[in-house]
Amino acid sequence: MRENLTRWLYQAMRFQSGLPKTQRIESISKAAKPNKTEPNKNYTAEDPKPDHIPISADVKYISWLSLIYKLLFQKEHPSALSSFQEMMTSAEGKCVVVFLDYDGTLSPIVNDPDRAFMSDRMRSAVGDVAKLYPTSIISGRSRQKVYGFVKLDDIFYAGSHGMDIMGPAIQASSYDGKYQSKALDKKGNELTVFQPAQEFLPSIEKMLNELEETTSEINGALVEDNRFCISVHYRHVLQEDFGLLEKKVQALVAKYPGFHLTRGKKVLEIRPSIKWNKGDALVYLLETLGLTNSSDVLPIYIGDDRTDEDAFKVLKCRGQGYPIIVSTNPRDTLATYSLRDPSEVLSFLIRLARWGEPSAV
Fold this sequence. Notes:
Elements: H1 2-12, H2 28-31, H3 56-76, H4 84-91, E1 95-100, H5 120-132, E2 135-138, H6 143-150, E3 156-159, E4 164-167, E5 180-184, E6 190-194, H7 201-214, E7 222-225, E8 230-233, H8 239-255, E9 259-264, E10 267-272, H9 278-288, E11 297-303, H10 309-318, E12 322-326, E13 337-339, H11 342-356
Parallel strand pairs: 1-2, 1-11, 2-3, 11-12, 12-13
Antiparallel strand pairs: 3-4, 4-6, 5-6, 7-8, 8-10, 9-10
Helix pairs in contact: 1-3, 5-11, 7-8, 9-10
Protein name: Trehalose 6-phosphate phosphatase
InterPro entries: HAD-like_sf (IPR036412), HAD-SF_hydro_IIB (IPR006379), HAD_sf (IPR023214), OTSB-like (IPR044651), Trehalose_PPase (IPR003337)
Cofactor: a divalent metal cation
């Protein structure tokens, strides 16, 4: 769709002669060079010759294309704020269940991952939502680290992209019991801890030690222990040093066949190669809540990362609920609705809590 849109825009700006059908769009100044083997092909007296295209055309074209992309994105993934009433009309009489990512959703993306604090207003909004609906946070961070940021006891936490879940007390019968154990929260309430990647912990510890040593010579590289996965942040790494860092991480992963490398926002992540992701965590939590086969459940999942697409896919396949992407820029996504940033997430959660209050029904 995007390539067709690009071609249409390109032609609409009367530069169609510079864009071969088999070629992806490039900057106009490059794409518009005449083809020496086919001079004057498809030109008319009214068309501007490539050599005469003004330099400002590049800027105008890019700005226009960007605007069209944004308009298309907003049409395909409308704002969850402007669509709130329509969404909640479908939620009447159903059990709303809320799933949230953390970084980039409840807190802004920051230069120092250890300082990704959520605001007091956001904490209050999440707490108000959790009083009304079962609420879980599913993050790539370690479960303990996310809890340290959120500091709320009335929600469920899934860290390491769902490989470390502290959820409802009911154990899921369709999952291996050896990965489930009982635990108590700070209030003494019984919970179930589910960790399907337990056997990978010894290798993860070895990899952490190796990574900290091998990346210590690269300024700005930060290795983060996220319990069942390892994050290598390169937000502060010089561009000329990134290639070396990437090679070092890839070389380490190659030594451990049970792991694979994924990529996020300025981060390389090493994860166990098991069939488990945020979508699987969502399904597990729904089962422990007793809502797996319910037709009256309405899950809402809000996230900004590409790893959240696994959860969006689950909701799409179930034909239930609302996957909501948090993104300022247009991007490929399975989400149905969108929010631009954590401030809009805050507004959405406040409205969701108000909608669920007894007096609002």
